[in-house]
Design a protein that fits this description.
The chain is α/β, with parallel strands linked by helices. The chain has one domain: Rossmann fold (3-Layer(aba) Sandwich). Helix content is about 40%, strand content about 20%. It contains eight helices and seven strands. The protein has helices spanning about 5-30, 30-40, 60-70, 85-95, 135-145, 160-170, 180-185, 205, and strands at about 50-55, 75-80, 105-110, 120-130, 145-155, 190-195, 210-215. It has a seven-stranded mixed sheet. Strand 4 (about 120-130), helix 5 (about 135-145) and strand 5 form a beta-alpha-beta unit. The radius of gyration is 16 Å and the shape is globular. The structure holds S-adenosylmethionine.
Length: about 220
């Protein structure tokens, strides 16, 4: 059954529906896909023919594209976002991209705070620049719910910085502090890695990575 969105979610959806093309172009120019692919390649992630992966708040699909560029081929990758226009661009890119297994990617409209999936469904969640729109506690709790115990969450937040402060104004979100992220993540996850992108890569100016492993529901 369709759910009526809260005002702030509906504003976020309208905002990203409007800027989807520009946001996608900016992500391409920034080289986020390659930066994320290089990081993911360095991890010892293994998938089998039943593995399910979620790109939570996928936008136009840059993180899913990076994940597929890194050579990972789970059974299905689900790209979920509020913005229909972003998902249309994502689907188009998946279909045209030679490094991407488009047949096994689904683009789904949804809210990360009410994911339409059963408990303990996913083997990996990737999420970049989305928890900044919601309560960190509610978002991480929902990711913990749908992840299998022992599965990983690759969390790519906006890091507190001057660039982060500019992005807060441009994109109308709220950066979470590193201390808050570590404290709240620790309720469900073990922090198994912290990663800073090289300063030569534009993603490193605003983003970092927490590699988390679900320890409890
Ligand atoms: C800064 S963009 C990041 C998109 C993508 N992950 C990337 O790295 O390019 C934030 C995205 O989060 C989505 N978003 C914000 N709140 C959301 C929510 N509650 N549920 C699902 N998606 C949400 C927006 O529609 C937008 O596409």
């Amino acid at each position: 059954m369709a759910r009526i969105l809260e005002t702030s979610e509906s504003e976020t959806q309208t905002f990203y529906d409007r800027i989807a093309d520009v946001h996608n172009l900016a992500m391409k120019i920034n080289g986020y896909r390659t930066s994320v692919a290089n990081y993911l390649e360095s991890l010892n992630l293994t998938f089998d023919k039943n593995s399910l992966v979620l790109d939570a708040g996928s936008g136009t699909g840059i993180i899913t594209l990076g994940f597929h560029s890194a050579g990972f081929r789970p059974k299905k990758t689900i790209a979920l976002d509020l913005s229909i226009n972003s998902l249309k661009i994502a689907r188009d890119q998946f279909e045209k991209d030679e490094e991407t297994d488009a047949e096994n990617i689904c683009a789904v409209q949804g809210n990360i705070l009410q994911l339409p999936f059963a408990d303990e469904t996913f083997d990996l969640v990737l999420t970049c620049g989305v928890l900044e729109y919601v309560s960190l506690e509610e978002g991480l709790c929902e990711f913990a719910r749908i992840l299998k115990t022992g599965a990983k969450l690759v969390l790519i937040p906006v890091k507190p910085s001057i660039v982060g402060s500019v992005l807060e104004i441009l994109y109308n979100f709220k950066t979470h502090s590193i201390e808050e992220t570590e404290e709240i993540a620790g309720r469900w996850f073990e922090i198994v890695g912290n990663y800073e992108f090289p300063i030569t890569e534009p993603i490193g100016w605003s983003k970092m990575i927490f590699l988390l492993e679900k320890s409890r529901s």
